[in-house]
Amino acid sequence: MENQYFLAERAAKLRYLLVKALHCAGSGHPGGSLSCADIVTYLYFDRMNVSPEKAKDPDRDRFVLSKGHACPALYSALAMRGYFPEEDLWELRKSSSVLQGHPDMVRIAGVDMTTGSLGQGVSAACGIALAGKADGKDYKVYTILGDGEIQEGQVWEAAMFAAHYKLDNLVAFVDYNGLQIDGDVHKVMNPTPIDKKFEAFGWHVQVIDGHDFAAIDAAVKNTDAVEGRPSVIVCRTVKGKGVSFMENNAGWHGKAPNDEQYAIAEAELAAAYDKAVKEAADNE
Amino acid sequence: MSKIATRMAYGEALCDLGEKYDFIVMDADLSGSTQTGMFAKKFPERFFNCGIAEQNMLSVAAGIASTGKPVFVSSFAMFAVGRAYEQIRNSVCYPGLNVKICASHAGVTVGEDGATHQYCEDLSVLRSVPHLTVVSPADAVEAYAAIEAVLKHDGPVYVRLGRYAVPTVFDKATYKFELGKAVPLCEGDDCVVFATGVMVAAALEARDILAKEGINISVVNVHTLKPIDVDTIVKYAKKTGKVVTAEEHTTVGGLGGAVAEVLSEHCPTLMRRVGLRDRFGRSAPAGELLDRYGLNAQGIIDAIKSF
């Protein structure tokens, strides 16, 4: 694994960028973007063999953001990796921009699959994994599902499919932040036990803290040894992680901070970033 | 005249094309009916059964296509399209992925299975989806040729196939298929019938009957509903001044709707639409259903004589 202080610094920057992008946009989904930010950071700054120079390389690893509304996290990672300038993030959701409200593989460099309608991304990820097997390629396919998203029946069609076709090149993360638009996922439509459901469908299952880079790294490395079945890593996360007033608050699922709120969020995220930069330097 | 279902030609075309081209075929537990089973037997490593899970199948196909490999997906039209409409729209068509939705058992000619399985709204539903090409072959010869054209076309396509054995009206040796081109089959100045699918043979039968009465009609086969061939439709509307459309499908938004849209913008012409009038089908043998709903030569003749 990359130095975890380095990953923490990247994640702090990613959170700063995505909240600023959402503020500029005036709409969008901060809560679920912040909850999966560490997973996205790990994938783009440690794990996946991707780069802007080989954005269309048939052998590259793939990432499908099945919970497509969290795209500010993905777009920020892509900007930080050089797929497009960071300044482009301030045009998110605007008519002048290619950065759509949900991921668009046609318009946006580095986006591997168009998503946004919940449940469809994980199926597409299965398709990419199946094609990789059919072509004898050794790329891996990573996808992130929301805990509310797994209420979609299609997710379980895909779960059955991935196990049936032994897609051990597929790794799914469930961003289990416990909240969806209408509130507590357990009260809206209880998806638990998430781990046992996937297990029953024939998946290799791990449950970790989705904000702990060492845990994410260990879990993903464990999937490398799994043969003949897909892997899911159920990540306990905090919705809105990193912005005090957004944390564990379903109200921040789908709205952008106003100027006053952004001033507070920006100060918190900037302080966290400065601290992370210092820690990364101290622990280089 | 021999009778072969268009789905049979589809199965044959897949097997023949599979020798020359690299693509994947998927089905949702109906491979014996859609005829993808022929391909599955010949190329088992390139066929994937998705089970009875059409929504997943369409999105999986999108994922495969994103890697550069074309994918044919099949089921009954009702389920491949009706069940998985949103996956077709969002996973396949929005990103313009190379997925060919070749659905069989469209229309009332499903027969005895009844209304739950007789999809008569597929053309109107899919014609409205951006990026999607919509094809409705008239017979087995046309279906066979269409599949190769569809494979060579870069982008999503819907092909409407039938269960019912339909008269073969084209000559395999000479037939050439061109996506987006309506095909005039006979010339007459009294009326034009724009027909698609099983209704092309019915229109030709109507032509023969009317000719004996001294009424001469043009018949134009509209195998591609989208993009629609505006020039040919306008040309024949101007030539005859009377337009009839004929389809085994609702009169709302299918071929009748498409022709009405073209003519109202380019050449307003009085029309009659032969098709299902805002209704569901029912269980009965396919041939009886066609007669029951006027989806036959007599239905077309009645429409022509009603001007």
Task: Provide a descriptive summary of the structure in words.
The complex is a heterodimer of chains A (284) and B (307). With 284 residues, chain A is an alpha/beta fold. Chain A has ten helices and seven strands. Chain A has one domain: Rossmann fold (3-Layer(aba) Sandwich). In chain A, the strands form two sheets. Chain A has a five-stranded parallel sheet with strand order 1-2-3-7-6, sandwiched between helices. In chain A, strand 6, helix 9 and strand 7 form a beta-alpha-beta unit. In chain A, helix 1 packs across helix 4 and helix 3 packs parallel to helix 4. The radius of gyration of chain A is 18 Å and the shape is globular. The relative contact order of chain A is 0.18. Helices cover 41% and strands 19% of the residues of chain B. Chain B has 13 helices and 14 strands. In chain B, helix 11 links the parallel strand 13 and strand 14. Classes of the chains: A alpha/beta (284), B alpha/beta (307). Chains A and B meet through helix 5 and helix 6 of A and helix 4 and helix 6 of B.
What's the short version?
Chain A is of the alpha/beta class. Chain A has helices spanning 4-25, 30-35, 37-47, 71-80, 120-134, 153-164, 185-189, 194-200, 213-224, 259-282; strands spanning 62-64, 141-146, 170-176, 179-180, 183-184, 204-209, 231-236.
CATH architecture of chain A: 3-Layer(aba) Sandwich
- CATH-defined superfamily of chain A: Thiamin diphosphate (ThDP)-binding fold, Pyr/PP domains
Beta-strand residue fraction of chain B: 15-25%
* Named CATH topology of chain A: Rossmann fold
Number of strands of chain A: 7
Distance between the termini of chain B: 31 Å
Strand line-up across the major sheet of chain B? 3-2-4-5-7-6-12
Largest sheet of chain A: 5 strands, parallel
Q: For the residues shown, what is the average pLDDT of chain B? A: 97
Identify the overall geometry of chain B: globular
Give a quick account of the main beta sheet of chain B: strands, pairing sense, barrel closure. 7 strands, mixed
State the CATH class of chain A: Alpha Beta
Q: Could you tell me how far the N terminus lies from the C terminus of chain A, measured between alpha carbons in angstroms?
A: 13 Å
Please compute the radius of gyration of chain B using only Cα atoms: 18 Å
- Whole-number count of domains of chain B: 2
User: Regions of chain B with pLDDT < 50 over 5+ consecutive residues?
Assistant: none
What oligomeric state is this? Answer: heterodimer
Count of DSSP strands of chain B:
14
